[in-house]
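Quality-control log, excerpt.
Job 1 of 2 completed; input and output follow.
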Amino acid sequence: MVSEVSRQPIGSVAGRLFSVLVIRPGNQVEREKITRMPQPHPTGSFLLLVAAVPPYILMLAAIWDGPSWGDIGGEARYSEGWAQFFALSFGVLLWLVLGGLVLLAGLRGHVSQNLGIAAGGLYLLAAIATIGAVQSYFSWPGGWSILVPALLPPLLALYDVCASLPALAAGPLRLVPAIIASSFQ
């Protein structure tokens, strides 16, 4: 007589096994205690988050200090052109790092495929909105348009880090962005 033990998962979320039914010889069914597979630490997400801070600060400094504020001379146009160049350069670098965060949250995070696709689309829309707000701020200095490039990147980074952490993305300890986002599943 061959003694085979068959294990069948009862439920799993994002690869984590909660419990299994053990069928022993003689059709005796038992439930094993709850086990979890070790989850990798989101080190890549935190490294990308740290890498996003310098371009974010430099982009905001170039945007804030860029407009000539009424001076229309040749030197003012040169300085505004350089400010636009630096804002664009640091902005592209920032949005590439944020794109890496979105990609990591989608690949290794604890979100559904539909939510990952929606996050990718919102990432593109946020980048386009930031470019438009920066151009608006350079055309008409002052006003509220500086808030778009100041608030959208941290909001997107916060969502991506929350999606990468298993304690914040799935389970009873959900944050408000994760709860709102989970309604799209």
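Job 2 of 2 completed; input and output follow.
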Amino acid sequence: MEVGLRRGEAIALKYSDFDPETGAITVQRNAVIGVDDKPVITDPKTMTSRRTVVLSQYCQQKLLESQKAYKRLRFLKGPDFVDSDCILHTRNGAMMSPHALTNKWKSFQRKHGLRKIKLHGLRKTSATNMIMQGMDVKSVANRLGHKNCDITLKIYTAVTNEMKVKNAEKMDEFFAKMASG
């Protein structure tokens, strides 16, 4: 949600792609659906999809906690453990399939009574949230792995009611300055 990764990028992301010194993840591979729903590693979608993104302190902490849990799982499973190093993994440590992630998302939505949106919709929500937090469009495009801002603005962002209210408040400030000037 923080970075707006594509499904395949998220599945292919490994703990070794995280640098705790800089707090950054490097997106350098993609997972696609292969034979028997097994994930197959490929190159990222585009050249700009290869990117390094600095994570928030919150996300860094959650990632470190997840890595500790992964190491505990490795110890508990012993020889049955598949050491994929993947952040999103199955109960035995193997890389999760793209369909499995989509199914987990659907189950999460049902469990929490959320409005149904496609998993890829989280990528759009992420972009809109970044804009709402004041990130410049170029930085948002970079985090999403877009070559230019046009795609980010046209497809991946939305104008929320909160943004409309803030814009109206900015116009009120403008007119107040004009009237007092």
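Post-run check on job 2. The longest strand covers residues 24-27.
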